[in-house]
Task: inverse folding
């Protein structure tokens, strides 16, 4: 049996493909829907891969401009990260100086030992006190003779001029100077106490300077991020202008703005990520270069202090920040320009 021939349509008419309706997609089985989803993912992955290869090729086509741009971006990102690391090292170094911030509580002469023990115990009960240590007048004199190096020259002094005292170590972990002042007032009013001296002004000034430096670094980081955004945006804008003819051809062939924009976005991401890597190399090399010298100076003062560079969190923040700034700068530069291109 031969099939019935179809009736020819009108002269010059073309047979249009029948597009499946939404109801047809809804009636598809699970295997057909999975096949369509896999096909969509494969097409999307292919488009992204081709766009990334196109963007990388554009960087390779201009090696000198790429190297110069990555160097500028690396320096701009390394500056705030390096300052952050320096401030953190200074803060770690200053944490070991809290022990030198002591309150010297000078006692009156000829106090009985029972009253001295009561004063010491009363001071130790205060929550602002880490420790309290009694030093007698004779102990203070012996320590002075050993530390001064005068030796027998002090034998001419008949009476011991040094009073007995209690060395109080305040708790500075909270950084609350008001509590320390309250403690000083309490010690000065304690019965049997002649006077109390606090030597923490320089520590408080140091902490204030470190806080000021940290805020300044935050401000400089914002300026550096803005600089990276502008550098990437200007570079991508110049690149998109050099590819104007290619953009017009793509649009004549029916390419969407997103398809044309995608390679430039990958170029911006590459600039940002590459600038972050360059910044990491600069900071790591800088800390490795002078870290050994700082350790030698610290060893002369019997200090185990070691300079530490940015940690993994700071490095990850630097790379992700550079990537985000590169993508944002390229988007701002190329999105409006591509929309404005109208091929004729």
Result:
């Amino acid at each position: 049996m031969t099939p019935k021939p179809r009736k020819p349509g009108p002269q010059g008419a073309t047979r249009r493909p029948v597009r499946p309706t939404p109801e047809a997609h809804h009636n598809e089985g699970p295997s057909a829907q999975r096949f369509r989803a896999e096909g969509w993912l494969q097409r999307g992955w292919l488009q992204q891969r081709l766009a990334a290869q196109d963007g990388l090729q554009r960087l390779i086509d201009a090696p000198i401009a790429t190297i110069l741009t990555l160097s500028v971006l690396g320096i701009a990102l390394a500056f705030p990260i390096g300052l952050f690391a320096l401030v953190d090292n200074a803060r770690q170094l200053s944490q070991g100086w809290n022990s030198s911030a002591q309150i010297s509580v000078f006692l009156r002469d000829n106090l009985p030992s029972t009253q001295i023990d009561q004063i010491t115990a009363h001071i130790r009960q205060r929550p602002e006190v880490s420790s309290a240590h009694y030093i007698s007048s004779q102990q203070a004199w012996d320590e002075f003779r050993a530390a001064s190096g005068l030796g027998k020259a002090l034998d001419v002094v008949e009476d011991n001029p040094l009073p007995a005292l209690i060395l109080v170590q305040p708790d500075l972990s909270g950084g609350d100077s008001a509590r320390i002042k309250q403690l000083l007032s309490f010690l000065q009013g304690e019965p049997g106490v002649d006077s109390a001296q606090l030597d923490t002004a320089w520590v408080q000034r140091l902490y204030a300077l470190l806080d000021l430096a940290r805020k300044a670094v935050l401000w400089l980081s914002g300026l550096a991020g803005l600089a990276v955004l502008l550098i990437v945006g200007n570079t991508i804008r110049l690149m998109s202008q050099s590819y104007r003819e290619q953009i017009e051809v793509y649009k004549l062939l029916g390419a969407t703005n997103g398809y044309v924009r995608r390679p430039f976005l990958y170029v911006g991401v590459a600039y940002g990520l590459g600038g972050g890597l360059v910044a990491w190399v600069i900071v790591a090399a800088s800390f490795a270069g002078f870290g050994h010298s700082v350790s030698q100076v610290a060893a002369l003062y019997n200090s185990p202090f070691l300079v530490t560079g940015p940690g993994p969190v700071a490095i990850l923040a630097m790379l992700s920040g550079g990537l985000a700034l590169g993508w944002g700068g390229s988007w701002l530069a190329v999105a409006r320009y591509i929309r404005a291109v109208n091929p004729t």
Remarks:
- The domain at 102-199 is CATH 3.30.70.3040 (Alpha-Beta Plaits).
- The chain is about 65% helix and 5% strand.
- Residues 257-300 form the longest helix (44 residues).
